[in-house]
Specification:
Elements: H1 6-28, H2 31-36, H3 43-65, E1 74-75, H4 82-104, H5 110-133, H6 149-156, E2 160-162, E3 178-179, E4 183-185, E5 190-193, H7 195-202, E6 213-218, E7 221-230, E8 233-236, E9 245-252, E10 263-273
Helix pairs in contact: 1-3, 1-4, 1-6, 3-5, 4-5
Length: 276
């Protein structure tokens, strides 16, 4: 059973990650390197502002948690170019928005709710700016996509290089789910590399004949599509219509119940565009 204050722990884990991500990026890439990669001034200055925001969020959440605050984990992001950095920035900022939105439904304390809403709106501005800088629409859809605590932690977990302090967190990470490509169009097939192997590892009762669904989370919509086991992979034959922008995908065993009890792996993150 999660406590009311546990959203602070989830948020602090994500804010630690975002703060370190921007600190590393600003140390590794110069203003000139961002300009050469197609991000002209004042992009670098704006990144510095975003980095300062994330640092402030960490300070605020750490102070609010007091002695209950977890120690900072160690992170590794694997980006090698300024464009890779900005692309991952877009993903992380989108996850930040979804994390605070998903937590809102479980926050009963008015003070906590106001704090979550205040940070959420700033993360949304970050996300819109980074998406626009990449040439994507700054707005995904009329509604943002909420994610729950375990889904958010699952997205953060692959970047944790030292998890020695994570035992204190009351969250679970699902097995990683990797789409064959991040940029897809409606109607495209998607292969989830090692999706079947990871799902079977998570639930040994899964076989290649077990009905499993790729559940597309986009805005307030959840769209299940049956997947097929192909070797160690799962494949969905097409991205459903009615989806646009950043989309999360979970593998699950139900096409009507979309809770952590039914999920096997994920979320994967894809950017969906409509067919011309």
């Amino acid at each position: 059973m999660l406590r009311q204050a546990d959203w602070y722990l989830d948020a602090l884990t994500l804010e630690y990650l975002e703060r370190d991500f921007y600190q590393q990026g600003l140390q590794n890439y110069t203003q000139e390197m961002f300009v050469a990669a197609g991000f002209p001034d004042p992009f670098y200055t704006n990144l510095q502002t975003i980095a300062a925001d994330e640092k402030t969020h960490v300070s605020f959440l750490s102070t609010a948690l007091g002695s209950a605050a977890t120690k900072e984990l160690q992170y590794s992001f694997g980006v090698t170019t300024p464009r890779d950095f900005v692309t991952l920035s877009s993903v992380l900022e989108g996850v930040g928005v979804s994390a605070y939105l998903g937590a809102a439904g479980s926050i009963m304390n008015k003070t906590y709710l106001e704090a979550a809403g205040s940070i959420l709106s700033v993360e949304a501005r970050h996300s819109a700016y980074i998406r626009s800088s990449l040439g994507n629409s700054p707005v995904n859809s009329p509604f943002e996509t909420p994610l729950d605590f375990n889904q958010v932690y699952s997205l953060a977990a692959p970047f944790i290089s030292d998890a020695s302090n994570s035992a204190k967190l009351p969250f679970m990470a699902f097995p990683m789910l990797m789409a064959s490509t991040m940029a897809v169009k409606t109607g495209d097939a998607i292969t989830f590399t090692n999706g079947y192997a990871n799902a079977k590892m998570f639930d040994s009762a899964i076989t290649d004949s077990t009905p499993v669904y790729a559940v597309f989370f986009n805005g307030l919509n959840k769209m299940p599509m049956m997947v097929e086991a192909v070797g160690n992979d799962y494949m969905v034959d097409h991205v459903p219509e009615g989806i646009m922008g950043a989309t999360y995908i979970m593998l699950g065993t139900s096409d009507t119940m979309f809770t952590d009890e039914q999920f096997l792996a994920g979320p994967a993150v894809v950017e969906v565009t409509c067919v011309d």
